[in-house]
Known about the structure:
Layout: H1 5-29, E1 41-43, E2 49-51, E3 59-62, E4 65-68, E5 74-78, E6 85-93, E7 99-106, H2 108-111, E8 122-129, H3 132-141, E9 154-158, E10 161-164, E11 189-196, E12 199-204, E13 207-216, E14 221-226, E15 231-240
Antiparallel strand pairs: 1-15, 2-5, 3-4, 4-15, 5-14, 6-11, 6-15, 7-8, 7-14, 8-9, 10-13, 11-12, 12-13
Amino acid sequence: MKMSRWARRCMAWSMMALAFVSAARAADDKPKLVEGKGDGWVELGEKDFVNVNCNQDTWTWKGAEVNCTGKPVGVIRSNKTFKNFELVAEWQHLSSGGNSGIFLWATDEGLKDLKPNALPKVGIEVQVLDHGYAEKYEKSTGKKPDWFTTNGDVFPVGGSDMKPFPPAAPNGKRSFPKKNLSKGFGQWNHYYVRAVNGEVRLSVNGEEVSGGSDCKPAEGYLCLESEGAPVIFKNVRIHELP
């Protein structure tokens, strides 16, 4: 039996309506990024950081964007210390296997007399690592990496401590991400960090993946890391909390 013209039109409209509803639901389900704008949010730029143990040309600022050569290994730190805060930052590696990070709650003691090619001895690191790093590790060692991931590990460094959220690394120190959401080199990634009362939570590209509690220390400087490869950070914004 042939379908009438009116019936065909009704079916077409129904299909269009279903497609519209499906698209709307997909848009609602898409992770929403914290942009770091509005009351209380402050954009961090060149004036807000000081060099600790890098060369003068390691970090080059252009407005809200900072390019890092990766050499030597080292950090720049914020002028002031922070305790409770929200932080957003976008980043991308410019080469496969690039390594970098954002340090939270680094202390004067952990930064004191830090020489080039050394990293803070105290603080919590939010890792910024390209997928190619795992590939190079496996190629050089013949082993699958089991003590790190490339999707947003959070861990204490040196004399620091943290109780990692599961899943944790075999040594029980490092929080592994629940999902693999990081994009590869040449693509922008978005981090949202909430650090309150010694607890750190990291969201990668809109979804919370890792973190930890009982962090010691739980107050200190914010640091951006140079670790051997070129990386770009932009739109680094912070919102201090009570």
